[in-house]
Amino acid sequence: MLLREIQPGDLLRVTGTVVQPDDPGAPAQFTVDGLEVLEAAPAPVIGIPG
């Protein structure tokens, strides 16, 4: 699956490693090892103009 196929609302499982730097002001770094779509978001319903 390509990342561009993921839609807002999809339920994802992301696995990896989080590393907190020694500097408390620095952001944590996250390395992704796996990305799995558990459930796709429902397709939007397109209304028919009346």
Helical region count?
A: 0
Number of domains: 1
How are strands sequenced across the largest beta sheet? 1-2
Low-confidence spans: pLDDT under 50, at least 5 residues?
none
Derived structural class: mainly beta
What overall geometry do the principal axes of the alpha carbons give? Answer: elongated
Order of helices and strands: EE
List the helices and strands and how they pair.
Layout: E1 11-19, E2 29-39
Antiparallel strand pairs: 1-2
Quick summary:
The chain has a two-stranded antiparallel ribbon with strand order 1-2.
What would you say this structure looks like, in words?
- There is one protein chain.
- This protein has 50 residues and is mainly β.
- The protein has one domain.
- It has strands spanning 11-19, 29-39.
- It has a two-stranded antiparallel sheet.
Structural key phrases:
50 residues, mainly beta, 40% strand
